[in-house]
Amino acid sequence: MQQIDASAIDAVGIPRLLLMEHAGLAVVRAVHHLVPDPSAPLVICCGTGWNGGDGLAAARHLHERGHPLRVAVTGPLDRLREEPAAYARILRGLGVAPVECLTAEALGPLDEWLAECRLVIDALLGIGARGAVREPAASMIERINRSGKPVVAVDIPSGLDADTGRIQGVAVRATMTVTFGLAKRGCLLAEGPAHTGTLVVDPITIPRRLLETAAA
Ligand SMILES: NC(=O)c1ccc[n+]([C@@H]2O[C@H](COP(=O)([O-])OP(=O)(O)OC[C@H]3O[C@@H](n4cnc5c(N)ncnc54)[C@H](OP(=O)(O)O)[C@@H]3O)[C@@H](O)[C@H]2O)c1
After folding, report:
1. How far is the CA of 75 from the centre of ligand 1 (A)?
2. What is the DSSP string of 5-56?
3. Phi and psi (nearest 5°) for 88?
4. What is the CATH number of the domain that holds 26?
5. Which of 5, 19, 30, 81 is such that its CA lies 20 to 30 A from the CA of 178?
6. Which residue's C-alpha comes closest to atom 40 of ligand 1?
7. Looking at the 3D structure of the chain, how many domains does it have?
8. Taking the model in full, what pTM does it have?
9. Burial (CB count <10 Å: 0-12, 13-18, 19+), residue 40
10. Which residue, among 130, 139, 208, has the nearest Cα to 172 in the 3D structure?
11. CB 134 near ligand 1, within 6 Å
């Protein structure tokens, strides 16, 4: 999928922001399938990579639909890459400032947010994660699982190895996983099925030719 993303962006010329927008909208559709009530409070946990950017993209649309939101980011906002940073700026402009949660010790408000919400979006780690889940993401994942709330995972449940389906220390137990382009092997192998929940595959406008060639 990383090669397909690169081909779509570099060879075909589709801006990453455009794919991120469609990824965000795919997540919004999953959220509304599980929680149709637009007044339901939601928590969105975002990492510092493009997976987190997909979560921030979803946040914009969910805000516009009326959901009260709490958006947590596991790193400094001023170090986000171009597209996630653009969404973080838009959210600030809309009055939904993402909150930096930089250490496991600084996750204080998260338990309260999780207790109040109707659903959690897990946009912490995607297919770019490497090795055992580090803090503060590890503690966030534990709290998300402990909350007992429905979870929509973005691309792959955080902490699940996208190739093997093995847990990297700790992993989100999702109700539904919205994966982009093609299903990731990790969702189907080993611990994958128990953590993925319902798997939704969305092409997010990646050219069909690239997906069909890779799947053949
Ligand atoms: N919009 C698009 O163009 C598009 C298209 C397809 C897919 N996607 C999304 O992009 C995702 C891939 O994005 P990505 O390559 O940026 O990778 P990612 O999955 O977002 O992970 C990379 C981020 O996680 C951190 N990280 C890596 N390993 C970690 C660990 N073990 N514990 C804690 N943090 C860790 C990295 O920090 P360090 O750098 O400090 O290690 C980095 O900030 C996909 O899963 C999908 O959600 C986006």
Report:
1. 12
2. HHIIIIIS---HHHHHHHHHHHHHHHHHHH---TT--EEEEE-SSHHHHHHH
3. -60, -40
4. 3.40.50.10260
5. 81
6. 48
7. 1
8. 0.97
9. middle
10. 139
11. yes
Q: Domain range for residue 35?
A: 2-215
Residue nearest to atom 42 of ligand 1 (CA): 49
Q: Using alpha carbons, select from 167, 203, 168, 166 the residue that is nearest to residue 183.
A: 203
Q: Nearest residue CA, atom 1 of ligand 1?
A: 20
79 lines ligand 1 (CB under 6 A): no
Average pLDDT, the chain: 97
Q: Report how far ligand 1's centroid is from the alpha carbon of 37 (Å).
A: 30
CB 200 within 8 A of CB 176: yes
Q: How many CA atoms lie less than 13 Å away from 82 in the CB half-sphere? A: 4
Query: Which residue has the least CA distance to atom 46 on ligand 1?
Result: 51
Q: So what's the pLDDT on residue 63?
A: 98
Residue 197's pLDDT is 98
Q: Is 141 exposed, middle or buried (0-12, 13-18, 19+ CB in 10 A)?
A: buried
